[in-house]
Write the structure tokens for this entry.
Amino acid sequence: MAHILVVDDERSMREFLEILLARKGHDVELAENGNRAIELLADNQYDLVITDLKMPGGPGGMEVLSEAKRVSPDTQVIVITAFSTTETAIQAMKSGAYDYIGKPFNVKEAAVLIDKALEKRELVLSNQRLKRQVSKQFAFENIIGTSERMKEVFTTIERIADTKTNLLISGESGTGKELVAKAIHFNSSRSSKPLVVINCGAIPDNLMESELFGHVKGSFTGAIADKKGLFEAAEGGTLFLDEIGELSLQMQVKLLRALQERKVKRVGGVKEIDIDVRILAATNRELEDEVQQGNFRDDLYFRVNVIQIVLPPLRERRADVPLLARHFLDKYNDELGKRISGFTKETLRLLEQYDYPGNIRELENVVQRGVAFEQGEYITPSSLPKRVQGEEHQNAMADSETHASLEDILKGEFNLDDYLDTVEQRIMVEVMKQTHGNVTEAARKLGISFRAMRYKLSKYGVRKSEFN
């Protein structure tokens, strides 16, 4: 049901429109002249105003239109006129009217026009709600943390969010690098423009150039049409290069040129395209070490690392664990339809003492599991994964208590995910011992890719420096 104001000096027209709109379930108010309409606009919020253009003895429809837009810019206005000239229509539309109806009008056509005006109103409001939600979700004030390390991060974000400076966000996997990038973008003057995110480690090297810079039709097999690259897609906004350390040296050269020249050229194209894009980059590698080892260009490193934000791992900000856990509890209460009130003291103690090799992402996973498993009012230790409960995992295969017997499985007392995690973690440790911390050799021994090996080491908190 919409709230609609009808303004017309002809009583029969007012009553006709009232009947038409009331039949569709709308709440209708009537005004016999412009003065009365302006009084009502001052005290009420309307979704739609339908006003006659010519009304003797006071303000006309154009004045009503102007006042409606002044007090509520999102209110839609339809003008009714017996003087349905092109000039009149253009004047009304330029002044903010949604459309106009010429007298005499077709009732069905008028009803369709009214429905379309109300649809536009709802679309505007829906987009405004979405923008408010996005702004609230990614405002840096809502990145959770009260530890001194996080206060430093907040201060830095506040100071540099609205600059044009390129930024490097570093930290272990799962520390919230993308969330920080979004907070910076949505608190900058570029917030109304696109934020384009690309994971540099997820795209094969032979496709990366096309993804970043675009391509022209026929430039390679499968290029059946011209395609914009992500630099063009982010025009006026922000391009977030996640895991920039994964780029090949060849792609690093091409990216550096784009950043220096502020121009891109599509694959197979000859035209250079000017770009206005702020670069935010993130990495879980030590890029300085990568530069020293020749894996990352020093000129590109200095180009993206004008300002650096280092996100601390969760084990170095344990005071924030209860706040984060509460946040995730509320989130998954809503998603899973649960009403869990909180955590027991012992559960919180276990959550705070765990090291979280997967950082915030792992904590979220732990709390989600707890919400799903818990049947009582508070999450208890039994609803947490065994690794968080403090049990020894590296020697779990040798520990008789962790060996799975067929009897255990049939009794329903065996958790396959926990057991497989235990086995995999121990294998990671053993193979790293054998290879003295050589990740490439360890990956070869296990028959998996280097990238998969590095992911598993990060997942279980196994650091190669411990085996050198």
Remarks:
- The first strand starts at residue 3 and ends at 7.
- Confidence is low (pLDDT under 50) at residues 392-402.
- The longest helix spans residues 107-138.
- The radius of gyration is 31 Å.
